[in-house]
Design goal:
The chain is an alpha+beta fold and 566 residues long. The protein has three domains: 15-185, Beta-Lactamase; 208-423, Phosphatase 2c, domain 1, CATH 3.60.40; 431-564, 2-Layer Sandwich (Heat Shock Protein 90), CATH 3.30.565.10. Helices cover 37% and strands 25% of the residues. The chain has helices spanning 15-38, 42-56, 95-103, 120-126, 161-207, 254-272, 278-291, 368-371, 382-393, 398-410, 446-459, 464-485, 535-542; strands spanning 59-68, 73-80, 89-91, 107-109, 133-140, 143-153, 218-223, 231-237, 243-250, 299-307, 312-318, 323-326, 333-335, 354-357, 362-366, 418-423, 431-440, 493-501, 504-511, 545-549, 557-564. Strands 3-2-1-6-5-4 form a six-stranded antiparallel beta sheet, sandwiched between helices. It has a five-stranded antiparallel beta sheet with strand order 7-16-15-12-13. A five-stranded antiparallel beta sheet has the order 8-9-10-11-14. The chain is elongated. It starts with 14 loop residues before the first helix and ends with a strand.
Length: 566
């Protein structure tokens, strides 16, 4: 079949009739376009289209088939005529429709019964008699997505080349409408999923314990590898002063894992309030989880108690990485998990217990997201990597230590959620909060912040010169956040906390912008200084130490700067 070069040319030579035909075709295109913008329901769009095309083409039936590539089928998504064939499936390489799809070329069949690819059993099933067929592919960006078909010209006439050209013309806006509807549906679905994940994340975050001021002996942090986390931790205080603690890791990812995380964390907290020995605590939780199937998921968890009066921590570990103990005057100790994860075996399991006296040391519980983090060579960090990090940060406060452990993991590729829980008696750390401010990331806030920093610096006994240097350092740090982290946006938030820890003044400057790591920010080469790039060098020269760590909730950046009080 040879297509006419002029899609609007009709077979009649009368100019007036040609003009009328062209106007009629333009009217049809306009009507179709109006139909397409009335709805984003793809089924409604296609049904409107086939009804108009059937009428305009003087055909007995019309239908639109779209490809289902997963099953290699063409599915009828809309039909108009004496027989409704909507949802009928045809293999992409079968029939005249399949031939149209695979070749990407229009097909005009004068006598369908004589065509070798004609599928006669469809007529047998429906009672419809196919006489002539006109098909054209639906193509978008050189990719065939379906087929537009009309059957049986009315009044015993035959389809003409003009009809084929018109059908090709109509296929273009239909293809665009299908693509736009799919884009819209995908966008709406992505927005819906994002909203649900945000709600799930907020629910999970609400279940994590609030920040408690020192000397509370438990501190934890968590970061998600994905939108929602399967990790959790918790701690609570009992009437006798004992502190209970929980850390867990649900297998799998996504919504199912996050929902089991909510259930498991609530269950473990509820049982822990009864002050059962840790082994019995896990045994009871295991029984509850096994009674209600969790679609093959399971929970690695460790639970325990710390008694500040005796300085003894007792715990039981079901499937998590080894527990690590480090104090300034002793070597590293580790304890392996002594039981399988929860929710696998419904039979009675024995969960043994371990205990140790802290003696100014820290007891670290962690999930395998930290040990499984990979470097550029795809090598796991393993437990040894975590232990090396702990050795290098033992002089820091507990909050800073767990933040640095998470930051170290984030420099690698996280394949799983990462959570750290640290148990440590903190009476040796004399800490006083001097400033706790939250303010907008705007330059107009700097004057007020400078005043507060000056007050604090004078209060702890710094000289006038040192006070001015501290003010300029903080000014540089906050300006960097505004310019480079938030990129000038005035609606960002900044938190400033200033603490006196023993004989050290510590500045905690936190933002909620995309994460950066301390390995990517460092003082510049002073042999070739550039204008506007000396802020970090100034901070480096004024402060005794400065570094980045991960905030407790896992979002944004935390800059920690320290200045010894002489």
């Amino acid at each position: 079949m040879k297509a006419d070069n002029n899609l609007f040319t009709n077979s009649q030579s009368d100019p007036a009739q040609q003009s009328a035909g062209t106007l009629e075709q333009l009217t049809l295109l306009a009507d179709l376009s109006q139909d397409f913008v009335k709805s984003m329901d793809i089924n409604d769009i296609l049904l409107r289209a086939v009804k108009r095309i059937k009428s305009y083409m003087d055909a007995e039936a019309a239908s639109i088939f779209l490809v289902d590539r997963e099953h290699e089928n063409l599915i009828c998504r809309a039909s108009a005529g004496p027989v409704d064939v909507t949802d009928m499936a045809i293999k992409t390489d079968n029939g005249i429709i399949g031939r149209t799809f695979t070749t990407g070329e229009s097909q005009m069949i004068i006598d369908a019964q004589k065509d070798a690819d004609f599928i006669c059993h469809v007529d047998t099933l429906t009672g419809f008699q196919t006489k002539s067929v006109l098909c054209t592919p639906l193509i978008i960006q050189s990719k065939t997505i379906g087929v537009l078909q009309v059957l049986n010209k009315l009044d015993e006439e035959l389809f003409q080349t003009r009809d084929s050209d018109i059908l090709r013309l109509l296929a273009t806006p239909i293809s665009l409408a299908v693509q736009n509807a799919r884009f819209t549906l995908n966008y709406v679905e992505q927005k819906r999923i994002k909203k649900e994940l945000t709600l799930a994340r907020k629910l999970q975050r609400s279940l994590l314990p609030g920040r408690l001021k020192p000397p509370f002996p438990v501190v934890g942090t968590n970061i998600s590898a994905n939108e929602v986390s399967g990790d959790f931790y918790d701690y609570f205080k009992l009437n006798d002063g004992t502190v209970g603690f929980i850390i867990g890791d649900v297998s799998g990812k996504g919504i199912d894992a996050s929902m089991l995380m909510v259930r498991a964390s609530s269950l473990l907290r509820w049982i822990g309030k009864d002050h059962l020995p840790p082994g019995q605590w896990l045994a009871k939780a295991n029984k509850e989880l096994c009674e209600k199937a969790s679609r093959g998921l399971f929970v690695c968890a460790a639970v325990g108690y710390y008694n500040p009066k005796t300085d003894v921590a007792t715990w039981s570990n079901a499937g998590l990485p080894p527990v690590i103990y480090k104090c300034p005057k002793c070597t590293i100790q580790t304890w392996n998990a002594d039981a399988p994860p929860l929710g696998i075996k419904a039979s009675e399991l024995s969960f043994d217990q371990q205990s140790t006296r802290l003696n100014q040391g820290g007891l670290y519980f962690l999930t395998d997201g930290l040990t499984d983090a990979r470097n550029n060579d795809n090598q796991r960090r393993e437990l040894e990597g975590i232990i090396e990090d702990i050795k290098h940060i033992e002089s820091e406060s507990p909050e800073v230590r767990i933040g640095k452990l998470i930051t170290s993991a984030r420099r690698h590729t996280l394949n799983d959620d990462a959570t750290v829980l640290l148990i440590e008696k903190r009476d040796h750390l004399q800490e006083k909060v001097l400033v706790a401010e939250q303010f907008k990331a705007s330059a107009c806030q700097l004057k007020q912040i400078r005043h507060k920093i000056h007050q604090v610096a004078v209060e702890v006994g710094f000289s006038d010169q040192c006070c001015q240097e501290l003010i300029l350092s903080m000014d540089e740090a906050i300006t960097n956040i505004i310019r480079h982290a938030y990129k000038g946006m005035n609606d960002g938030e900044i938190e400033l906390e200033i603490k006196q820890q023993n004989k050290t003044l510590v500045f905690y400057l936190r933002d909620f912008a995309p994460e950066v790591y301390d390995s990517s920010i460092k003082p510049r080469d002073l042999s070739n200084p550039l204008p506007g790039q000396m802020g970090i060098n100034f901070i480096d020269s004024v402060m005794d130490t400065w570094e980045f760590a991960t905030p407790k909730d896992g979002y944004g950046n935390l800059l920690i700067m320290k200045k010894e009080i002489s």
